[in-house]
Specification:
- The protein has 212 residues and is of the alpha+beta class.
- The protein is 38% helix and 12% strand.
- It is globular.
Length: 212
């Protein structure tokens, strides 16, 4: 946790979590000695016992995949796997996936998601990201990939493209677009690498994106 405090991707995710719906399980996914050891002990809780209890309740063979590579014949490989992993319990429960995590609650409510957040990066970079929370988790659509289609249209760099228009105005040097899987929901994000002029005209960049 402490080793990645200056990681810009990590800090961007932390900014997103500031608007997370408190009734949804979306939360920060790491900790430190204070939050993982000292605070639970002060509250009379044993972190190790709680992790074991969580494992016992939620981990099941049905949600696990094992890949084996070897030169041995298949029967021998099968015996090796069964002897080592045969004890993995099948509880009959399946892990929650995507939208199931929040039930009727969205990860971020529409009213909290809208807005402009300015953040000073750790590295010498200039960029702006526009993010939309998608109405449904996108992983089940892995065959049709509607998000990839939209990303291809927005991310096109040829004549008549959004990037061409931004470059013509001296606002940007690059652009990327795509769907991000947040495990419990999905977002569509457009990230634009800005020139110094573009950094001073973020609203104009946004107007061109929405016009496109």
């Amino acid at each position: 946790h402490s080793m990645r405090l200056t990681d810009d991707g990590r800090r961007s995710y932390a900014t997103l979590l500031l608007d997370a719906n408190p009734r949804h399980p979306l939360h920060w996914g790491s900790g430190n000695l204070r939050s993982l050891r000292d605070a639970p002990r002060a509250a009379g809780r044993d972190p190790h016992k709680e992790v074991v209890a969580f494992y016992t309740e939620h981990y099941s063979a049905a949600d696990m995949t094992l890949a084996v590579l070897g030169r041995e014949p298949l029967p021998e490989l099968r015996e090796m796997v069964e002897s080592r992993f045969g004890g993995v319990r099948a509880s009959g429960r399946r892990a929650l996936r995507g939208d199931e995590h929040g039930g009727e609650e969205v990860a971020i409510t529409p009213g909290d998601f809208a807005g402009l957040v300015r953040r000073a990066p750790s590295k010498d970079v200039r960029s702006v990201s526009f993010t939309w929370q998608l109405p449904t988790w996108q992983v089940p659509f892995w065959e049709s990939k509607p998000g990839a289609y939209a990303a291809h249209v927005v991310g096109h760099e040829g004549a008549g493209s959004l990037l061409a228009a931004l470059k013509a105005r001296g606002l940007a040097t690059g652009l990327s677009a795509g769907v991000d899987d947040m495990r419990s929901f999905s977002t569509f994000e457009v990230t634009i690498r800005l020139t110094e002029r573009g950094l001073d005209h973020v609203e104009e960049v946004g107007e061109l994106l929405f016009q496109f």
